[in-house]
Amino acid sequence: MNNLVRETVIVGSGCSGLTAALYAARANLKPLVIEGHEVGGQLSLTTLVENFPGWPEGIQGPDLIANMKAQAARFGAEFKTGHIVKADLTNRPFTLDLGKEKIQTRTLIIASGASARWLGLPSEQALIGHGVSSCATCDGFFFRDKEITVIGGGDSAMEEALFLTRFASKVTLIHRRDVFRASKIMLDRARANDKIHFLPDTIVEHVYEPEKHEVTGLKLRDCKLDKVYDFPTSAMFLGIGHEPNAKWVNGQLDTDADGYLITNNYVFTKIPGVFASGDVQDRRYRQAITAAGTGCMAAIEVERFLEAEGH
Ligand code: NAP
Fold this sequence. Notes:
- The protein has 7 helices and 19 strands.
- The protein has helices at 15-26, 61-74, 122-126, 136-139, 155-164, 184-192, 288-308, and strands at residues 5-11, 32-34, 48-49, 59-60, 78-80, 86-88, 94-97, 102-110, 114-116, 132-133, 147-151, 170-174, 196-199, 202-208, 217-222, 227-232, 236-238, 242-244, 274-276.
- The strands form 5 sheets. Strands 1, 2, 5, 6, 7, 8 and 19 form a 7-stranded mixed sheet that branches. Strands 10-17-11-12-13 form a 5-stranded parallel sheet.
- The longest helix is centred in the last third of the chain and has 21 residues, at 288-308.
- The two termini are 22 Å apart.
- Bound molecules: NADP nicotinamide-adenine-dinucleotide phosphate (NAP).
- Residues 117, 119, 151-157, 159, 175-177, 181, 183, 240-242, 286 line the site of NADP nicotinamide-adenine-dinucleotide phosphate.
């Protein structure tokens, strides 16, 4: 184990973690950011971000993240690739186990975000990367002039479907109900696009054909008619929401039924010195600007906590 005890470690490199890093670095706390599985978080998988204040024409998600990282680095934030395998939050300093290395820290900011949700079908899992994807911006390019499907009825599904019309000849949006969670503006945009076809009240039961290592179609169930039929398609994109990345905390902090960390006063967890920010603790807003906002709050609370302890 490295003998150095850090003032603060930030777990997660999305816009919440990077904002926390910026504030902690400017407070001279020399924060260490553990970048995690999805470096840059969800924004790094997005295209144009039009609702982050200060960018009147919008900004590409990966560019926004790169700017935030450069800004935090300029004030002394350090970055480490890898993810936490195990954490001991029962003793102070806290110990974070990265597998080949352990890190000790007086305070911790958990900004490990949320990851795309899957249907959980064995055939779906077998075809991830072979026509099944949760990232339209990463994989849409491979389906130029093909007929493809998007699953979900929220803003993510609408956004993916709209984005995929740039490549695909036809996008079928499959949703398990006929009521959509998507905001009116996104739903209207999708409905107005000639390339997007809606298939409501429908669930996916199987993805063909894992044995060929490619997607050739879906077995669908029409829930209203209770009828099963085959539907040809070249790809299935998931847009069915996200799971909080808090399993590594392993029950040491309270979560809600879906695994989101429970915080008080925005960023306080039940363990003094451990704060949580961004999508790992926010199932209500889940916006880049709110994740950045709670990242800022967490860093300010870290500074106050350390000061109160005389560090
Ligand atoms: P969401 O609003 O929770 O929607 C998830 C959708 O997936 C729902 O339609 C849900 O169906 C469906 N779903 C969930 N599990 C499923 C399963 N196992 N099988 C089939 N369908 C399933 O998630 P989201 O679309 O990712 O949006 C999350 C938040 O981010 C929202 O606040 C959204 O406004 C925001 N967001 C905004 C933008 C934008 O403004 N550009 C873009 C993306 C996301 P049910 O409705 O039946 O539950």
